[in-house]
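1st attempt posting a full record on here, be nice pls
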Amino acid sequence: MNKFLSALDTSVADAPLRPLLYTAGAAATAAGIYYYVKRDGKTTTSDSEVTTEDPVCDWATEPALLQPMEVPLDQVTNAVTEAEEKIQKLVMSNTQLEERVRELEELLCEARRDGMKSKASQAEAEEKHQKAEETITQLEEEKSDLTKQGCERDQEADSILQVENKKMKKTLMDKEELLKVFLIEAEEKHQKALETIAQLEVDKSDLTKQLETLQDMWILLGEAHRECDKLKAEETMLSQLEVVKSDQKDQVSHGIVQNMEHLLTAFILILFFLSLFIIRTKCLSSTT
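the predicted structure (as tokens):
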């Protein structure tokens, strides 16, 4: 019994189920002591340390308790029967307690194994956590470096963009100035073109008038040609009249013929000057 209790005590010393195991051990111990007392009729137990240290066991030294007592047989029999029943119940309870203790020991072993596994898992988790923290620290450093590099690149890009922007602004300003110059030149050319067109319109009008004048002069020239033809015809007639006159000189007397010749010559001259006056008048009217 002492070995069992010592084994039970050492097996459950560090377990969280210690109170329950102590209770089970105490009950088993009490049942064993009661069983031994009833069986042997003695007041001592196999455990000498318990009997010597328990003050209940000092009743044998008192004289009044050493005197025999008369107890009825039926009462004793009933008491023994009840005691045996109680002992049987205690034995059964002890067996159940032992089974429960074994189950608890198995659970305790499993709990210890689980604890060891959990410790290993915890150590692994702590190691992973440490690695994760180191990785996070490294990533933060890399992030900081990348951020610095990004800032530097942004600054470089900003400076490059500013330079390009200045260049583009200068180029645009130069192009704008050139466009202004081109626009002014185009406006001047357009103005000159308008003036040229206006001058051409004036020249066209003058040429049209000159053309009309030429047409009128051409008409007058045609009329002059016709008048010239008429004059030529008249001259021919005059020639013929001269021939006739020369022929008549022989037939008519000298005085009459001379008078007629003078009259005819005067008539011809009058006709000639009249034709020239008509032609000049038409030319002057066409020019005006």
